[in-house]
Specification:
The chain is α/β, with parallel strands linked by helices. The protein contains 13 helices and eight strands.
């Protein structure tokens, strides 16, 4: 009997031989660590067939069950995989998460006591954008009781089935799943000192992820207002009186507070805190795109006006928002944003 089921929802627009074999080696490690591996693949038929040739002997490679029709394709894959799982303990992870054997053993022990386990992520990469992401994680760690938003969690299969479907019409599905469990009163372990390796994205993908990160922060009003205001105020003060440039130090001090919290020092380099200044700039730029994303469906826990009229932008975004941003250009995203805004204005008119 396996320790747990490792569930990976994935979708690729084009086939990458290097990446596919990299996943194959990872699946071998998961199997050796005692995991049943289920990959729910929403890729086009020709890409799915190429994946099947390499993965068929290493995991259960399945298509997405067509009866699930949420706007977020990944959520459809999660429901498909949970239905197929043979183990009570399920580890759900994004495609950039990398567990080691000791991590799997630890999360399985925690699932004996809790119904959901929420770990943290860290980067080993020292490229500039990876350090900016590390600084963002440290800022969240300093400002939020539950620390940063992870790309993985572990939960009990029966609890998942008992709590019913979670909102699959949001972009930030990982955190919505955890909110859904919390609303049902389940026992959740917020393991802020349990760190799982996350691979840094390419620079292009990192740029495409900025609006999505800003989208989630709109639910945290104090944090959004604080960092949205910090960068323009600092620039204005620096132009008026250069000595006030030290206001940038405030964001560094906040990141350092996150670095000092718990065991973060073991996983994040000290100098990552100094890239928090770039986090302020990135949030400013991302806010341009995330204003349009505010017209997307909000998580149920964050909707203040439940009976408000829905705009047709939901259907629009379903057709235009890429399920796999990795292979879509920023121009396509910008075009979708412009169209969404025009539809929103017509709807308000």
């Amino acid at each position: 009997m396996k320790l747990a089921t490792y569930l990976l929802p994935i979708r690729r627009a084009v086939f990458s031989k290097f990446e596919t074999w990299d996943f194959a080696n990872y699946f071998k490690c998961l199997d050796a660590a005692g995991c049943e591996v289920i990959v729910v693949d929403g890729s086009p038929v020709e890409v799915f067939a190429e994946h099947e040739k390499i993965w068929s002997d290493l995991c259960r490679h399945q298509v997405v069950d067509p009866r699930f029709k949420f706007l977020n394709d990944k959520v459809n894959g999660v429901h498909t995989g949970v239905a197929l799982a043979n183990n009570e303990k399920i580890i759900l992870a994004d495609d950039d998460i990398r567990y080691e054997k000791i991590d799997i053993e630890r999360i399985c022990v925690l699932l004996d006591k809790f119904e959901l386990v929420r770990p943290q992520n860290f980067f080993r990469d020292v490229r500039c954008w990876a350090l900016i992401e590390s600084a963002r994680m440290l800022i969240n760690r300093a400002m939020l009781r539950t620390a940063d938003y992870p790309g993985t969690c572990g939960f009990r299969r029966q609890t998942f089935l008992n709590t019913g479907d979670y909102d699959g019409d949001v972009l930030f599905d990982n955190e919505e799943l955890i909110r859904h469990f919390a609303r049902r009163g389940t026992r959740i372990a917020y393991e802020n000192d349990f760190f799982i390796l996350k691979r840094a994205p390419t620079f292009r993908k990192w740029l495409e992820q900025r609006p999505r990160q800003a989208y989630e922060d709109f639910g945290l009003r104090f944090k959004t207002i604080f960092f949205a205001a910090l960068f323009p105020i600092a620039v204005a003060l620096a132009c008026a009186a250069p000595k006030w440039l030290s206001i940038f130090l405030l964001s560094i001090f906040i990141a350092l507070a996150g670095w000092l919290r718990g065991d973060a020092r073991k996983y994040f380099p000290f100098y990552a805190s100094f890239f928090s200044v770039n986090v302020c700039s990135a949030k400013e730029l991302a806010a341009i795109g995330s204003r349009e994303e505010k017209s997307l469906p909000r998580p149920r826990s964050m909707r203040r006006h439940r009976n408000a009229k829905r705009l047709p932008v939901r259907r629009l975004v379903r057709n235009r928002w890429p399920s796999d941003c990795r292979h879509r250009s920023p121009r396509l995203l910008a075009k979708a944003f412009r169209i969404a805004i025009s539809v929103k204005h017509r709807g308000n008119g």
